[in-house]
C-alpha cells in the first residue's frame, strides 16, 4: 500500500520512511512538510490517478494544521484514509481529528509496529487508536466531564466573551472566526453547561472566577 508522510520535522519523516520501505507491502509515495504541501501533492497524485492509500499526518504544523488538513483531504479525496501520528493526546485534539475523518490516532511514543498496524487497519477501512487515547475516550463515555471540564479551550474563551456581554458577531471578530461558528460555540457552551440563556452563562463564569462581577 502507498503512504504519504506529513510531518514538519524532516528527521521524523526520514525515520518513518526508512522503517516502512523495508516492508514488502509498504511504499512511501511522497513526503510533505505541512498540510498545504500535502494537499498540493495529493492533488498532483490524483491528476495521475496515483493517490496513496493512507496519509500519515502530524497535527501541529505550520501553514495548515493537521486537523484542518484532514478535513480537506476527506472532502477532496474521500477514498484516502488518514492516520494521525502526533505528540499530543489531549481529548480536544482527538475529537477534532476524528470529527474531520481520521481513521486512526497514534502518539509519537508508539512502537513502530503499532504505526504499521494503524496504517494497515486504515487501509482495510478500520479505525486504530493508541491505547492511551482509547482509554481517554472510554473514560469520557463512562464518566463524562461536567462543568468547566466539559468545555474545550475555545469554548472557555467563548464563555468569557459571553460573560463580558459580547454579541455573536463581536465574539467572531475577537476570535477571527465566522459569526456562524461563534453562534455554534455559544450553543455548545450552553448545552454542555446545561444552561438556557447567555445570562445564566455569564453568572456561571462569574461564579467560576473566569470574569469579575459586572457592576
Automatic annotation (TrEMBL):
Instruction: Tell me which UniProt keywords the record has, alphabetically.
Output: DNA-binding, Phosphoprotein
Q: Which InterPro entries does the annotation name?
A: CheY-like_superfamily, NreC/VraR/RcsB-like_REC, Sig_transdc_resp-reg_C-effctor, Sig_transdc_resp-reg_receiver, Tscrpt_reg_LuxR_C, WalR-like
- Please give the Pfam families that the UniProt record associates with this protein: GerE, Response_reg
- Residue intervals of the Response regulatory domain: 2-123
4-aspartylphosphate modification sites? Answer: 58
Q: Which domain of life is it from?
A: Bacteria
* Every HTH luxR-type domain range: 144-209
What's the protein called, per UniProt?
A: Response regulator transcription factor
Q: Which organism is it from?
A: Streptomyces ureilyticus
Amino acid at each position: 500500500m502507498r503512504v504519504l508522510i506529513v510531518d514538519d520535522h524532516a528527521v521524523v519523516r526520514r525515520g518513518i520512511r526508512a522503517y516502512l520501505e523495508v516492508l514488502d507491502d509498504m511504499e512511501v509515495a511522497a513526503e510533505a512538510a505541512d498540510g498545504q504541501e500535502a494537499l498540493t501533492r495529493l492533488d498532483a497524485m490524483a491528476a495521475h490517478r496515483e493517490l496513496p492509500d493512507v496519509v500519515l499526518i502530524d497535527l501541529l504544523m505550520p501553514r495548515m494544521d493537521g486537523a484542518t488538513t484532514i478535513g480537506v483531504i476527506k472532502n477532496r479525496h474521500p477514498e484516502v484514509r488518514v492516520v494521525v501520528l502526533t505528540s499530543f493526546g489531549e481529548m480536544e485534539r482527538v475529537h477534532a481529528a476524528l470529527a474531520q475523518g481520521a481513521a486512526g490516532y497514534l502518539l509519537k511514543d508508539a512502537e513502530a509496529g503499532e504505526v504499521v498496524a494503524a496504517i494497515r487497519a486504515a487501509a482495510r477501512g478500520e479505525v486504530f487508536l493508541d491505547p492511551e487515547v482509547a482509554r481517554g475516550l472510554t473514560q469520557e463515555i463512562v464518566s463524562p466531564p461536567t462543568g468547566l471540564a466539559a468545555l474545550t479551550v475555545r469554548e472557555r474563551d467563548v464563555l468569557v466573551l459571553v460573560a463580558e456581554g459580547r454579541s455573536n458577531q463581536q465574539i467572531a471578530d475577537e476570535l477571527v472566526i465566522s459569526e456562524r461558528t461563534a453562534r455554534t460555540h455559544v450553543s455548545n457552551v450552553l448545552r454542555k453547561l446545561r444552561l438556557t440563556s447567555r445570562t445564566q452563562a455569564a453568572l456561571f463564569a462569574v461564579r467560576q472566577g473566569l470574569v469579575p462581577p459586572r457592576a
